[in-house]
Here is the input.
Amino acid sequence: MNSDFKNNFLSKNEDVLGMVVSGSLTNGVEVKLNPDRSVSDIKIGRYVAIETQDLKFFGVVTDIELGATDQTLRVNPPEVSNPFIANVIKGTTAYGVIQVEPMLILSQEDFDSLSGPQPAKTIPPHFSQVSFASDLDVETVFGLESDTNFWLGNPLDMDSAKLCLNIEELIKRSNGVFGKSGTGKTFLTRLLLLGIIQRGAASQLVFDMQSEYGWKGFSEESKEVKGLKQIFPSKVAIFSLDEESSKRRGVNPDYVVRIGYEDIEPADISVLKQTLNLSDIAADAAYSLERYFGPSKWFKKFISLSGGEEFIDLARDLNVNQSALSSLKNRLSRFKRFNFMDELGGNDSVSQILSYLDRGMHVILEFGRYGSDLAAYMLVANLLTRRIYARYAISAEKALGDPTQQPTPLVITIEEAHKFLSSDIASQTIFGTIAREMRKHNVTLLVVDQRPSSIDEEIMSQLGTKITCLLDNEKDLDSVLTGISGNRKLRSVLSRLESKQQALIFGHSVPMPMVIKVRDYGTAISYADFQIEDVDVDFDFSEDNEDLFGKKDNS
Amino acid sequence: MSLSYRIGEVVESSSIQFTVQCYDLYKSPNIGTLVKCGDDPQLFGLVYDVSNKSMDPARRAVPRGRNENNEEGVYLSNPQLSRLLITEIKCVSVGYKSIEGIEQSPISLPPKIHSFVLECLDEELKEFSSSLDFLPTLLESAILTSNDEVISSFLLKSSKTHNDASQFLIYAGKELAFNLNGQLIRLNNLLKRISK
Here is the structure.
C-alpha cells in the first residue's frame, strides 16, 4: 500500500464507530457499534467511511437499531437500576447497530490516478472498521472549494467540512429544489443562484414569485437578508412586473416589463387551464380563435367582443360550444386587470432580457403584487420563457455551424413548478420541453416546489440533481426518490431531516447522496464569503418613503 | 519487597488442577485466591475449594468436646489433632509464566508433587488480572463446584490491586457479558456479586 494513501485515510481511533458484521449489496451493511458508542451519538444520514485492507468505502447511515445478544433481554431486562450493571450491559449484551449504505469506493489506483471514488459495486468484508468520515474524506469525494466548486453546506454533524457542489456539472441538467413550506427552499435556492453567479457558469433568469431573490428577502424569523442584487450589483439586473411594488420595497428596477396583448399565444392559455379552471374545450378554443382572428390579434379582438349576436356568430363560426367560449372570455378578461399588460403593445421585454443575458448578467423578474396571482405568474413565466427559449434554439443551431457562437448557458428558475410541470400540461409548456430536452439548447431549469408528486414523473426523472429539504408526504417522498438506487433507505433519511437548514442532495452533480446543513446566509460573515463587490448600493429611498408614509413634518 | 506466604505443598496434580495440603491446619487462602507453584515454569492456580479433614481417609474425626467448655479446649486437650487433621485446598490451573510473560491457559504438564505453593503478591495479582483471557475456561469449567463464586471472589480481590478498581470491574463485567451470551440471569447475578 502506498503510505500516503494509508496516512491520509487511516481513521483516528476517536472516530471509529464499530465493525461490519453482516450485509448485502442490495440492503447495505450492518455495523455493530463499539461498546463505547451510543446509538444516540449517531444520526441518520451521517457520512461514514469503511476501511478494508486496500479499499475505502464511503456511505451514509440509513438506519439505527438497538440489538441484544440475548433475546430474553426484552422480557427480563437486567437490573439496570444498578449503575454498574447498566454500565456493563451497555455495549455488550445490549448494543447499537447502524445500517450503512455503501455508496462509493476508493481504491489505491483511483487515489493514484486522482480519478476519485467510484460507485460501490461491492461491499466491505466482515469486520471492516467503520468510522465517521473525516474532513479529508469529504474533500476527496466532493472536492475542495474552487472556481467550479461552490460550498453549499456542511455534511451532517461535520461543521468543519465543506460540501462543495460542482456548479458546471450542476447546470448541465435541469435541477430541483424541493421541501415543504417553511423548510428553507428559498434560502437554498438563493444560495444556488449565488453559486452560479459567483462561479460565472451560466446566465440566469429567475421568475421571482414573492420578490425575495432580487433585492432583499426575509428569513422565517422576519430577519431581513440581502438579495442577489445587493451582493452582486453589477452582475444582477432586477426586472419588475410591478414597478410600484418594487419602489415601495426600495428597489429601483433596471427594467419594467410590459406585456402586449399581441404577445399572448394559445399555448399560454393551455398552461393556465387548471389555474383558470378552464375546460379542455374552452382552452382549445384559443387555437381556433388564433386561426380565426390571426396570430397576435386574436387575444385583443376576443376580449373586446361585446357579446350578444357577435358572440353567438363567433361560436358558430368556430364550431365551439358557446358556453365554453363564454367561460374562456370571462377568464381571460381577468388579464385586463394586470397593469403589466398593455393593450397597445409590450416593450419587447424578451429582447431586453436577452440583451442582459447575452452580457452574462442574471435577470431577476420580480412579480410584486402579481406574485400572489398564480395566473399572472404562469402567464408571464411561460410567455417569456417560450420566446427566450426560441431565441436560444436559434443561437444553438447557429453554434452547430460555428462553435464560437455557442450561447452562454442559461438557467431558468421557476417556483411553484408543479403548476407548469404537472402531468396534464407538462407536454404543452415550454418548461416541460426544456426539462425533457436537458441541455439541448444550453437552457436548463431550476425548479423549486413543495409538491414534487404533482410534477410529471418523466420530468422528475430528467432532473439531474435534486436538493430536497424536509418532505413528509408519502407521495412527495416517492416522487423525489424515484429512480435512485437505495431509495427505500434514503426515504427514511429524507423524512427525518430537521425542518430548518437541512437538506438531502443527490443526483448528477454529486458523487453520492448526502445530508447537509445548509450554509449560513444572512450574516455579515456569510456575505463576506460571497466577496460582495465594492459598489455603492445605497439608494435614496426618501422619495419612496414619502410616497408611502407622507412627508415628514419638519415644523 | 514483601515475601509471598507459603501455603503448603502440592500433594496431587493433573494438567488442569492440583491439590495442596496446607502446612498449618485451618491456615488456607479463601476461594478465588491466586496461588503460584513451581519454578520452571511457574504455574498459577485459582483456589476453588477448601476442605478440612482427617489425614487418614479411613479414620474419620469423632466428637471430642462433650466435657469441654469451648472449642479451643478440644484442641488443647487433644494436641495430636493438629497432626491428624489437615487443611487441603484445590486449585484450578489458570496459567503459567513463560519467557514472553504470563500465559492464561493451563500448561500441558501438571506441577510436581511437593511443589511449594505460595499465595501471589498484590503486584502479581495485578499483573495476572490485567488480562482476563482465562475467564471463558473458568466459566465453563466442569470441575469447579461454584464457578461464579470463585470468579467473583477473584475479580473483587483483583480489583483492589488496580489503581481504578471500578474501572477494572467494568472491564471485567464486560468480559463476563461477552462470555455469558444467552445466560442473562447468570450474568445479572454475577454482576450483582461484583458490584457490591
Chain A has three domains: 3-142, 166-257+347-541, 261-340.
